[in-house]
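Tutorial, part two.
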Amino acid sequence: MFVSTSHTINTIGMHLLVQFAQGRFNSDSYATEEDLTTALLQSPTTELQQQIYDWFSTAKTNVDALIFGYVAKFSLSMDDIEQSLLPGLAADLMRYELCTNDADEGISKRRDNAIKQLEKIDKGVIQLKSSTPKLSSKTIKTIKPASQFNWSGY
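Running the prediction step on this input gives:
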């Protein structure tokens, strides 16, 4: 819902995804860019490609669940999601989920910043969509103000 495979590939980059995959899987099954492209953008044909697909799908499920936990109370359409900052936050969270080195400060910092942004969204500090004014169904009544002041004597 929040994670798009093509957006993730474009944001993280295929080269970095290949590095993540090579670090994730055994050295006897060397993942290539072709394997990742086939596994993520087409349908997997080999066992390694199926493992890559499952690895990416698990990360995608985790990130979607995390983001949904923060924005579940909002009614968002797909257009609202695509126009908001959620795809960027999802890409940063996917980078963390897919990396093999949890101690990488750059990736951890991106994840922490994304979590902080999600907390701000949850608190209402950051709006996901522009607010539209509500139309009033009541008429506005005006009356002559009642005044005790003596204008003529002034």
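The chain has a mean pLDDT of 84. In part three we will examine how such features are distributed along the chain.
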